[in-house]
């Protein structure tokens, strides 16, 4: 399928880079959309060394087509030479709902971050970023991709924290947690998205099934409840955005 004005231009992309290793069945594909040669090749080298299959694209045009097939995650620079990165993000999200999109931005303005998440990005990193941070976020998104594509009732485990969704039970180490119903659902959402920024809107939609934003005091109360049970550092507040569950 050709997205109007987007799919027909020639795609200046390089072939998939393959590390000199034997692939497992579990190989994961990452599309890096970045016009800065030095950053793009640096990312490709590092990601390839981590066992990912990496595809590079130096412009926004052709992104939807490049993400076709088995791409699991896109690292998207917002400052591209041809199409605005936010627009690329929207088109990717529309065409590939299950894709993980991580935006790189030199804009650390809160509004830009919110705009990026509203455009369908799952997460963001502000340049300059630490490589270790990027890799941790990517691992986290890859986990989420595998959780959401696997049986939804499969047990979840993040660090010491374990959740059995079919039994609706949760443990921190050996100790079982006593959770209110919505705390349990919030915790599950957080675990699936560990390390990933979640907007208040998205949380309200998923856990309370409402986009009504008149008051989200309920959300704050439940976050407080989870912090009391898991430790305050388990959930980071992202001012003006929402929350991020940190790996314990
Ligand atoms: Ca750029």
What does this structure look like?
The N and C termini lie far apart (43 Å). The strands form three sheets. A five-stranded parallel beta sheet has the order 2-1-3-4-5, with helices on both faces. It has a four-stranded antiparallel beta sheet with strand order 6-7-8-9, covered by helices on one side. The protein has a three-stranded antiparallel beta sheet with strand order 10-12-11. The protein has two domains: 28-150, Rossmann fold (3-Layer(aba) Sandwich); 156-245, Arc Repressor Mutant, subunit A (Orthogonal Bundle), CATH 1.10.10. The radius of gyration is 19 Å and the shape is globular. The longest helix has 19 residues, at 131-149. It contains eight helices and twelve strands. By secondary structure, it is α/β, with parallel strands linked by helices. β3, α3 and β4 (100-105) form a beta-alpha-beta unit. The chain binds calcium ion (CA). Residues 35-36, 77, 79-80 line the site of calcium ion.
């Amino acid at each position: 399928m050709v997205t109007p004005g987007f799919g027909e231009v020639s795609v200046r992309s390089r072939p998939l880079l393959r590390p000199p290793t034997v692939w497992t069945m579990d190989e994961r594909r990452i599309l890096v959309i970045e016009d800065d040669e030095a950053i793009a090749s640096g990312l490709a080298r590092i990601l390839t060394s981590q066992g990912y299959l990496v595809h590079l694209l130096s412009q926004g045009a052709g992104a939807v087509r490049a993400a076709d097939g088995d791409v699991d995650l896109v690292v998207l620079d917002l400052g591209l030479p041809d199409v605005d990165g936010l627009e690329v993000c929207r088109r990717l999200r529309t065409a590939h709902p299950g894709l993980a999109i991580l935006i790189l931005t030199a804009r650390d303005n809160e509004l830009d971050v919110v705009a990026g998440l509203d455009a369908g990005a799952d997460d963001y990193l502000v340049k300059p970023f630490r490589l270790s941070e990027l890799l941790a976020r990517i691992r986290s998104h890859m986990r989420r991709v595998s959780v959401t594509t696997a049986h939804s009732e499969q047990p979840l485990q993040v660090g010491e924290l374990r959740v059995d969704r079919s039994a609706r039970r949760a443990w921190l180490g050996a100790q079982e947690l006593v959770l209110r119903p919505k705390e349990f659902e919030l915790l599950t959402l957080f675990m699936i998205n560990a390390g990933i920024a979640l907007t208040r809107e998205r949380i309200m939609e998923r856990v309370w099934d409402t986009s009504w934003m008149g008051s989200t005091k309920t959300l704050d109360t439940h976050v407080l409840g989870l912090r009391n049970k898991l430790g305050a550092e388990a959930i980071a507040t992202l001012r003006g955005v929402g929350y991020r569950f940190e790996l314990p």
